[in-house]
Amino acid sequence: xxxxxxxxxxxxxxxxxxxxxxxxxxxxxxxxxxxxxxxxxxxxxxxxxxxxxxxxxxxxxxxxxxxxxxxxxxxxxxxxxxxxxxxxxxxxxxxxxxxxxxxxxxxxxxxxxxxxxxxxxxxxxxxxxxxxxxxxxxxxxxxxxxxxxxxxxxxxxxxxxxxxxxxxxxxxxxxxxxxxxxxxxxxxxxxxxxxxxxxxxxxxxxxxxxxxxxxxxxxxxxxxxxxxxxxxxxxxxxxxxxxxxxxxxxxxxxxxxxxxxxxxxxxxxxxxxxxxxxxxxxxxxxxxxxxxxxxxxxxxxxxxxxxxxxxxxxxxxxxxxxxxxxxxxxxxxxxxxxxxxxxxxxxxxxxxxxxxxxxxxxxxxxxxxxxxxxxxxxxxxxxxxxxxxxxxxxxxxxxxxxxxxxxxxxxxxxxxxxxxxxxxxxxxxxxxxxxxxxxxxxxxxxxxxxxxxxxxxxxxxxxxxxxxxx
Length: 470
Fold this sequence. Notes:
By secondary structure, this protein is of the alpha/beta class. 26% of the residues lie in helices and 20% in strands.
């Protein structure tokens, strides 16, 4: 699309509207963690500018199950500087916000999103989340399809309080490719949204999707046993690839003897080394159990099973293996493997001591994950399980951060962590609640009372000259 100079100026202004009319340059981000996976596509994310801010008199859910009534949160330097009761000391020159009758939480983190890969409008030209040209595609990276202009990003921010999200490839392939974790900020490029230092994940899928896609083409896999056979052979190939490179390094790493680089096997070797996590699409309990055994056979770990509608059947197994379940509150029945879902799934997983997460997998659902968590509390109460609201918030922030490998930096309101914070205009587990203000790294990215801080993508601005009188 070619813009005239006035239209281009309007576009740039809209991208900056979330900060201020004339914001100062953004500050440099913190250095990537030492354990970050090296990549040729590094994050260029830089936090937007913020000011020292105090929220007083609010009810605080700290994201790790703690609650403070009539509490104080102090944000400065892009971090949570202090959190506590009404007597928490704060600087006199900070901006003070009265949170009486309101709630403060960590920003919502969606572990399973396809924003940017399946953006709005949902036309064929935008369908970039599945590389279904073969069942094994660990070579593709979701970030190479992310369209930053997807209006879904800003809607997730302003309607759902989402401050970070993991964008995953789809589930048509057994090995769908690498995910990318994003900070939910307006940006011109994917790299400028990319969460600095976040580890990659590998998206895998079991069950109906891959066997339906490839069995329908008279190609392997056409059955669940075919899924596992091809999975196992692929992991065996990755082990051999890893051995070749280890032997080459042991011999002195001479350039003339270097093994041929394979982008897909490189990703799998990263999983086997523990640098890349596994996010596994899987519905049925029996299949999750088989995948756990396969992970033990080849020496990798599943971070989370996604959708996981039968997790309640093996919650003890998930707990013992330290595997999270990312689940819907009540989606079920849309295919056979989703038929044995129950509304109490998340509550029962939580009650068993396993790691429970509420996820979206949907451009609309991501805007109301707080309401999905509220549904779970109601379903839990009906079977005699009483879960405190502040504990339920772990499903929306700390647990997804843990399964994404970023809980040391975000996901809860602890001093030193990123100031990814939402001020809700009421109980966040009420259907009437809305984000009133949202901060990312201490920068006020959305304010319900200030239309200039509602991020607007280039796509939403429309065509140059659109609406002009004829």
